Amino acid sequence: MQRTQRLASALREGAEIAAATVGGGAALVFVTIRPEDPDSARLRAASGFGKAQEARSVAEGLRAQVREAVASGSERTLESDASLGRRAAGGLRISPLVFEGAVHGALVVAAPAPIDSSQSRAISRVASEIALRLDHERLAQQVLSSAEEPAAPGNRDRGDEMLKLSEALFAQDIELLRTNEKLGTIEKLKNDFIEKMSRELRTPLNSIVESIISVLAGENEALSDGAKASLRAALDEGTAFLRTLQNILDLWRIKQRELPVEIQDVNFQELVDEAIFSVQDVIGDRPVRVEHDLQQPFPKLRTDLTKLNQILLLLLDNAAKFTSRGRIDIRARVSDERLFCEVRDTGIGICHDDQRFIFDEFYQVDEPASQKYAGAGLGLSLVRDLIVLFEGEVSVLSEVGVGTTVSFQIPVQLA
Q1: What's the CATH number for 152-259?
Q2: Are 259 and 310 in contact (CB under 8 A)?
Q3: Which of 91, 157, 279, 384 has the highest Cβ tally under 10 A?
Q4: What is the CATH number of domain 264-414?
């Protein structure tokens, strides 16, 4: 069981690395159940999808192309795939998972931009490492099966076969150790870079924001209206930049599994009130009301206060950003030790074709919207990852010109 779990984890990690290699695309790992049968390739891991069902649907659509790549043992490229939208705008690459002539499946990588030569080499390395792991699993199963079979007395061929299998397995163990050590070094360098850049950016940004606040508070009477407006605009931009930076870091830590859920007592009513107060600056003087409809009496919860607060703030901020008039409603209840919550707005809405992509990192519906509504396209992606971290679910319903409703549910304990 542990070996199976390790293999599943390695396949997921390979898919994540492949998707990250092409700058936030998507990746799917297909593994053959019977190596001699290309039709037996089945989806075993994926990255870059909001829901497992979406990955399965895309995998079903690619079944014929994957079969051809596995049967031929050669790479294939596709121009694009409508089911993947902008994640596949740069095309798809299907790489067979080959180790010492044996084909164990295929790695499919969808890229948002054309794949360059360095990315191509990186994808090939990932495919080779996945193939090595799959062949190692095949060899380990073969050794285990041979060891369990009763040996005939004096059968020296059986002993020689076991020795060869064990030597091959040991050689693969060494190769996997080298691969893991190399990947560990790369991951450490990436982590160090992210942490260093975070520190180098946040420290001066915090100083700038604090200085602006100090000037506005201490010299307010001496400042002209124009100077006040400029300073407030700079303050808004600075705090928005800090939030974006923090969102990037949180997304990174979630992907590195370095952002654990910390359970504590939570007063959800107070959490909602604080989130509504915080979003007023985003609304400004627009005719938008923010109201809540909570189960009464609302039970005290035990969950991660910081992450739940972050989810509410991100959803409210997103709703406020795209709602010019009307209202934003927060509804919540607790049932069967799960928190059910939705944020509904009367904003511009999202067309049906775009709704499946809104949880993608850096995704914005269209260029005019990205220019009119500030943001990096990270808010809903972070919401999704945080809810997945809770082992919860998130969904969206929207109609252009009517509004959007984002609903989520997470497991909670009752205090």
Answers
A1: 1.10.287
A2: no
A3: 384
A4: 3.30.565.10
